[in-house]
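Hey L., structure's done. Input below.
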Amino acid sequence: MSRATQQQPLFSISQVSTLAASFGDDVRAYAAAGADGVGVWEIKLGSDSLDEFQASGLRCATAVPAVPSVHALPLLPGPETPRERIDALLRSLEVLAPYAPSAVLCFTGPGDRETAVRGVRKIAREAERLGLRLAVEPFQLEGIENWSILNTLGDAAGFIDEVGSDAIGIQFDTWALWNTPELLDEIPRYAHLIAGVHVSDWREPTRGWADRVLPGDGAADLPGIFGVLEDVGWEGFYDLEIFSDNGTFGAAYPDSLWDLDAAELARRGREAFFNCWSKRRVPATAAGRRGET
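Output:
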């Protein structure tokens, strides 16, 4: 699958990137910086948020529920039992539906596969009723035991097959997948399942899971990944998602991007993304292997 070169990709900013800012400050800053969308985080929503969102002119990229996984996440607060967490996710779908997100994130969390499959299946039925799409996210192998049972696009595709719902796709995350073996071969294989793309870069050496950097400031070959995503026909949002701990999760990095105000982060994030985008290419190895199939 290929298409003509996309001249202007859709760029959005996931609200965790400006963690300390309010919902209203976020959407005003993102719109002023020239973003096309916002990745809504339920934890930021207030009584006026829908009005502020609609007034901003932005569209909603992947939305993130307050409780984003079936199994508990050791590094984040929330209910402990899968039943409580599934109920919370079902309520979140109702809350997020008015924003018309391109997808709603859903982690498995670390735990047994059977419970995760049953839980996501139940959530998918409700998503289908509401006209929403879930996006399960594979996680970086380093630290996966705190987040997920899925590491690669192939893992996620197999999980989706087990769930058995057309309402589920994959959340592609450059930070989580950049060093996955055979990633550039997996992208064409599973392109039809990609429901969202989160963008950040891998600091080398990294200091932890919440130590992500702006595109182009790390070790990931983002131009190569962007080139293959464009080549297979991805036309959805490239959603900047920055975790950069300033003490919120126990590691106060002195150069934390979370210490920037929303307007500065939005401006710098958009500039960094488009700089990487301008260098996009399909690596010769990936193009050659696809040509053989």
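The chain has a mean pLDDT of 95. Residues 10-291 form a domain with the TIM Barrel fold (CATH 3.20.20.150).

-- N.
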